Amino acid sequence: MDIGENIRRARKNAGLTQKELGERLFVSDKTVSKWERGASLPNVALLQPLAEVLEVGVSDLLNGE
Questions:
Q1: What whole-number distance in Å separates Cα of residue 28 and Cα of residue 22?
Q2: How does 18-49 read in b/e, with b if 16+ C-beta sit within 10 Å?
Q3: C-alpha gyration radius of the chain
Q4: Is-contact 42 58, C-beta < 8 A?
Q5: pTM higher than 0.85 for the full model?
Q6: What pLDDT score was predicted for residue 1?
Q7: What are the pLDDT digits (tens) for 11-49?
Q8: DSSP symbols for 14-41
Q9: pLDDT of res. 12
Q10: What does the alpha-carbon distance between residue 21 and residue 28 come to, in Å, rounded to a whole number?
């Protein structure tokens, strides 16, 4: 699994839409979509806030553990 798939899975498990996740991180839903499709990666500074919003560890996002 790649990071985008891990983000998508964690987002769905958290019951959030791409728009809701983007609003919580102050990014657009298009940015979240790009992450999930693997077209881009979240900025390193966003990894911890992303993990906190999704209630997972950073390692879960990176490794799918």
A1: 5
A2: beebbeebebeeebbbbbbeeeeebeeebeee
A3: 10
A4: no
A5: yes
A6: 63
A7: 999 999 999 999 999 999 999 999 999 999 999 999 999
A8: TT--HHHHHHHHTS-HHHHHHHHHTSS-
A9: 97
A10: 9
Closest by Cα among 3, 61, 63 to 35: 3
Structure-token pair, residue 52: 């906190």
Distance CA(45)–CA(50), nearest Å, equals 9
CA distance 43 to 35: 10
C-alpha torsion 35→10→50→42, nearest 10: -20
pLDDT greater than 90 at residue 9: yes
How many Cα atoms sit within 13 Å of 8 on the Cβ side? Answer: 11
| pLDDT of res. 64 | 75
Q: How many residues does the chain have?
A: 65
